[in-house]
């Protein structure tokens, strides 16, 4: 049985769209059932609905400073939809222990750098500033420490001498759209991806849909 997957977004949703497109292939081993955004105006919500996926906003502003209450509302929606895997895709909120613990080992994130380099924000500007010659993106499991969970997949791109921040962002984004579906597929089937040491990644195919 394919694991029921939700995608959390905050904006444009191009990684979300890549996951939805990949999951249209009957051979893809996960299904996308739900898209949630903390911002009602996120362009990705509309794109998801156009693709026939249920997409809803849980506006963080409705909860004031109570971050845990916002996450509890999200968690309730995920549980009610019987979600088994959560993919963060440009979800620009720091998570509290509530959501991290509820989804430990079942929540993936894509980050626009080769972690552990450049966790946090403004990764492309910081890569240019640092003068690195290779940059890229990472899919990792979410743990309480931001952008520090076990790495599932990475892709590297060259940093060219004349690159602007936008050039680099575009080059990395193309790779994000390739590795996130690949990482989700591998995760859903329990296969290792992106690691030279298969034992370092998932080794036991999970039994989705049996809970
Ligand atoms: C992507 O580049 C993603 O890696 C990044 O935000 C962008 C979202 O674009 N995520 C983070 O920076 C998370 N810390 P998208 O909405 O078009 O997928």
Task: Name a few traits of the molecule.
alpha/beta, binds glycinamide ribonucleotide, 211 residues, 6 helices
List the helices and strands and how they pair.
Layout: E1 4-9, H1 14-23, E2 31-37, H2 43-50, E3 54-57, H3 67-80, E4 85-88, H4 97-102, E5 107-111, H5 123-130, E6 134-141, E7 151-158, H6 165-189
Parallel strand pairs: 1-2, 1-4, 2-3, 4-5
Antiparallel strand pairs: 5-6, 6-7
Helix pairs in contact: 1-6
Bound molecules: glycinamide ribonucleotide.
The site of glycinamide ribonucleotide has 14 residues, from helix 1, strand 5 and helix 6.
Outline of the structure:
By secondary structure, the protein is of the alpha/beta class. It contains 6 helices and 7 strands; from the N terminus they run βαβαβαβαβαββα. 34% of the residues lie in helices and 20% in strands.
